[in-house]
Amino acid sequence: MLGNELSTGANFIDNAVHTGNDPDTLGAYQLILSDIGNDTGATDATQEGLLFASSSRNENNFVSTRVIGVDTFEIVNKDNADPTLRYEEDSFFFVYVPFDTPDAIAMGHIDNEGDTLVGSGSYSISQLQDGEWFLSVPGANPDTATLILTGSSEDDNAMNNIISFELGTNNSVYGWTIQMRNINDLNTNPTGGMPLEGVAADTAAFSFAVFGEASVLDGDLNGDGFVGLDDLDIVLTNWNTSVTSGQWSLGDPSGDGFAGLDDLDIVLNNWNNGTPPTSTLVPEPTSLGLLSLGAVAILKRRIA
User: Fold this and answer.
1) What is the pLDDT of residue 303?
2) CB-based contacts of 31: which residues, under 8 Å, 6+ apart?
3) Which of 95, 150, 161, 198 has the fewest Cβ atoms nearer than 10 Å?
């Protein structure tokens, strides 16, 4: 479902149900998707897809969403040029994305600790620190996939937070670093910047969707399109530990929930497959044999 405040049938300023009657909170709107839920056989549209929204005017506005009931979302539009970050009646875009949308290879509504509240597809996400998370999707990288984000929290304090991301790596795994900051900190302390800030514990923080292609290369645990030393290092780093089943970034391409010999075999059996990233050293066959022996020796010492 696509829409914006200016389009026919989606004029939120004139026709939407405001969350409250307080003039100071005009700019908070309800979006009820019961018809979508009925059409798909779902009992609750908020559990069958995610809502994304953004301001549609270059007027210092920012938009966030949150679930407020069965089939019901709230969209909040605020003015970040106002020291009080007041609500503002102004136009915005929104899109509701069902979990079965073609080319949506991973989607999730994520809480403060990096746990999934509802989602689809294969991905790994972890909290790096308060207000910062790292997301990776097996087989997806910036060349083949696009990430979209929306701040989406039931925490009232988080309605002043903005969300952003940058491409990068974490422990040799390719993905996206996601950050949340309270823009009110900049208004109250212009010289202090905007430090990272999460939301209340066990509370929803944001929604994400990754669109594109996931070209999975067996043994390519870090998603750089090449099976090599970085992938071996992931297995060794997590060796002999129980991990989330099927999380390649944790060294479990075999999917048995344990980083061990089966996972090492997958990496070594696909060694040098793919296209090496720039500046990556590719071991020759003889070196690979020595490397395999060295890896086994290391593993024996770790097991002992």
Assistant:
1) 47
2) 16, 51, 72, 73, 74, 75, 94, 96
3) 95
